């Protein structure tokens, strides 16, 4: 028997032990939850409480329909080969066109949904949807596969260095879907169907919205949280290298930078500045007076960003209290250590643990130490490195969190880690919160999380990958993103080939939401507290590269008011500053296929150069407007493809004309 129950905003269907609940969840959006015996209301996820909307619910004998703005959901009782199932279909309200529909795996068993019991109320969960010819799928966080359209791929739903799992996808068919589960699993975007899998969880939970790409992104921001306003200083240039070893070295770099008359907003203190991992304090031998250092830098208009890791050395001063209070991540079996590390003073690898960011008391504890040892010195910008967390081996099922078993909640960790710093800063009256994170999940943006693409190679192939990765991050709801300019692993400052790469990477980086140099330059050194890396200042790459890089630094300074205007739009409307062409030109079929160009805001069209020796490239110009080349003065009609010059002095950038012609003077004064 199938039983339908409805109220003014929801449908609930019971078939045997399965309970399916569909409810209006924000403008043009619904949330779907399916459980065994009941729907659990309070499992961890990304969704915020929705604002009420005008919703119409209609019922018939074996079906029900929910209409919420642009989205209609139909659920019907279906019987095939004696198997009974409630099947869901999502439609465009104005035309009745099918956007997405569930699909059975087999005519007998399983159906569109699978609960494969693992005991104690947990199951392997599967949710299947139909595939559609010509559909393109975007978002899903940040990945290193080098594609923008992810149709045809299988992606692990797990956090890794360089692989940021944000399970939200945007479809060219006019819908967005959030898999609202932090469980470890995967998504399969195959030609014969789409399948979402959670390895071990208690219920299926997802959210669907409908509209244009811009409308989908706005609804998603409403559902998971808007990014706060970006502070103005954060749109400037951030200087970093693998490790500045001490206070004098760091101050020397800043003084040299400013003596050359170069713009600088942020200087970074990376790892091993601490006494021990998990002590969350400066080593006084290397940093004898950090308060005086911060005061000097503040007078120079330069912010200090410091690296904070979530891992804890068992010999650090905080380990015993964290252990006694149960504030470390536990394990299902074995001792509660999660990764090896070579820390200061020991000369050998030792096991370290992670604090449990899903525990409110643990978040309060780490903030109390960070506040006392950094914030009270004037430091207010946080680099939350290794916050996947970076466990080894990657056995998430062996982890036990305050929020639940690792297999069910592990992907939540980077969100909750950023939350500790956001709530800590807001609690002491600081409204400008920027946490620079190597990982994230759905909702990270509401806690002031900025992402970067992790420890990537220093190659042109890697640069090509970053272009796609950054666009998908923006489509996943995170407007603050950047890369290690020049790549992280490698790069010889004396190599002519590498010098060309870093110039091209700077030219791309100037049009990213955040603008930051970082990297582990040659010569390489083994992991440990003696690491520093090769030189990585803007003057480290010879006179020709230096001249080109200085031009880019000054270009970014001229563009900062425009960048900040796009950041305000991101805060208010959920529209990422850096985005694929189809977001602004959804009616142009070609714009859905272009993967190596992007828009910075509505008026700048960027075509990065991502190959050694390349001095021109094809550029697609979306229709409906003219495009001005600021370097030649020529105006080109939209709806065409041009060959644009790309000398080593600049990459192709075109300006929407005539609406934004004034920007041409910023690009080529």
From TrEMBL:
Domain Glycoside hydrolase family 31 TIM barrel residues, every copy: 229-564
Keyword terms, alphabetized: Glycosidase, Hydrolase
Boundaries of every Glycosyl hydrolase family 31 C-terminal domain copy: 574-657
UniProt keyword Hydrolase present: yes
Positions of transmembrane segments: none
SUPFAM superfamilies per the UniProt record, alphabetical: (Trans)glycosidases, Galactose mutarotase-like, Glycosyl hydrolase domain
Annotated Glycoside hydrolase family 31 N-terminal domain residues: 48-184
Origin superkingdom: Bacteria
Chain segments annotated as coiled-coil in the UniProt record: none
Family, similarity comment: Belongs to the glycosyl hydrolase 31 family.
Protein name: TIM-barrel domain-containing protein
Species: Plantactinospora solaniradicis
């Amino acid at each position: 028997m199938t039983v339908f129950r409805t109220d003014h905003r929801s449908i609930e269907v019971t078939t045997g032990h399965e309970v399916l609940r569909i409810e209006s969840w924000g403008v043009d959006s619904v949330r779907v939850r399916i459980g065994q015996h009941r729907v659990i209301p309070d499992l961890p996820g990304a969704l915020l409480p929705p604002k009420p909307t005008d919703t119409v619910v209609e019922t018939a004998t074996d079906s029900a329909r929910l209409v919420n703005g642009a989205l209609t959901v139909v659920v019907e009782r279906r019987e095939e080969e004696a198997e009974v199932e409630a099947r869901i279909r999502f439609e465009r309200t104005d035309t009745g066109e099918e956007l997405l529909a569930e699909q059975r795996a087999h005519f007998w068993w399983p159906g569109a949904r699978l609960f494969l019991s693992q005991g104690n109320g947990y199951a392997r969960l599967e949710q299947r949807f139909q595939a559609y010819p010509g559909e393109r799928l975007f978002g899903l966080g940040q990945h290193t596969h080098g594609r923008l359209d992810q149709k045809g791929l299988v992606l692990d739903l797990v956090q890794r260095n360089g692989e940021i799992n944000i399970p939200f996808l945007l479809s060219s068919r006019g819908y967005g879907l959030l898999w609202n589960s932090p469980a470890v699993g995967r998504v399969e975007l195959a030609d014969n169907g789409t399948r979402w899998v959670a390895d071990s969880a208690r219920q299926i939970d997802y959210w669907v919205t409908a509209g244009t790409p811009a409308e989908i992104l706005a609804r998603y921001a409403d559902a998971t949280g808007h990014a706060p306003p970006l502070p103005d200083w954060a749109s400037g240039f951030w200087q970093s290298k693998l490790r500045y070893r001490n206070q004098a070295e760091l101050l020397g770099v800043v003084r040299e930078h400013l003596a050359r008359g170069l713009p600088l907003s942020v200087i970074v203190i990376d790892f091993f500045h601490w006494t021990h991992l998990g002590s969350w304090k400066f080593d006084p031998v290397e940093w004898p007076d950090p308060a005086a250092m911060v005061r000097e830098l503040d007078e120079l208009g330069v912010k200090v960003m410091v690296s904070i890791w979530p891992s804890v050395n068992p010999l650090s001063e905080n380990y015993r209290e964290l252990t006694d209070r149960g504030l470390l991540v536990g394990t299902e079996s074995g001792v509660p250590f999660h990764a090896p590390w070579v820390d200061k003073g020991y000369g050998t690898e030792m096991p370290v643990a992670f604090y449990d960011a899903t525990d409110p008391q643990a978040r309060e504890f780490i903030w109390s130490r960070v506040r006392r040892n950094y914030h009270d010195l004037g430091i207010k910008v946080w680099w939350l490195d290794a916050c996947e967390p970076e466990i080894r081996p990657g056995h998430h099922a062996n982890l036990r969190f305050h929020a639940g078993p690792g297999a069910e909640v592990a992907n939540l960790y980077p969100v909750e880690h950023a939350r500790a710093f956001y709530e800590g800063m807001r609690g002491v009256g600081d409204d400008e919160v920027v946490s620079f994170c190597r990982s994230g999940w759905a909702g990270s943006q509401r806690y002031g999380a900025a992402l970067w693409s992790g420890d990537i190679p220093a190659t042109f192939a890697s640069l090509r990958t970053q272009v796609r990765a950054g666009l998908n991050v923006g489509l996943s709801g995170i407007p603050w993103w950047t890369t290690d300019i020049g790549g992280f692993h490698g790069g010889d400052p004396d190599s002519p080939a590498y010098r060309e790469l870093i110039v091209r990477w700077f030219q791309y980086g100037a049009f990213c939401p955040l603008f930051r140099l970082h990297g582990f330059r040659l010569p390489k050194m083994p992991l440990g507290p003696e690491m520093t890396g090769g030189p990585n200042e803007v003057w480290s790459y010879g006179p020709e590269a230096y001249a080109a890089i200085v031009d880019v630094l000054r270009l970014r300074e001229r563009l900062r008011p425009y960048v900040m205007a796009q950041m305000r739009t991101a805060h208010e409307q959920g529209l990422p500053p850096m985005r694929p062409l189809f977001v602004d030109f959804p009616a142009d079929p070609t714009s859905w296929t272009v993967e190596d160009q992007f828009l910075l805001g509505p008026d700048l069209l960027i075509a990065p150069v991502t190959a050694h020796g390349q001095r021109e490239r094809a550029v697609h110009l979306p229709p409906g407007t003219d495009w001005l080349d600021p370097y030649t003065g020529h105006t080109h009609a939209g709806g065409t493809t041009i060959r644009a010059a790309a000398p080593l002095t600049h990459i192709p950038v075109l300006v929407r004309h005539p609406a934004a012609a004034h920007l041409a003077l910023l690009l080529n004064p």
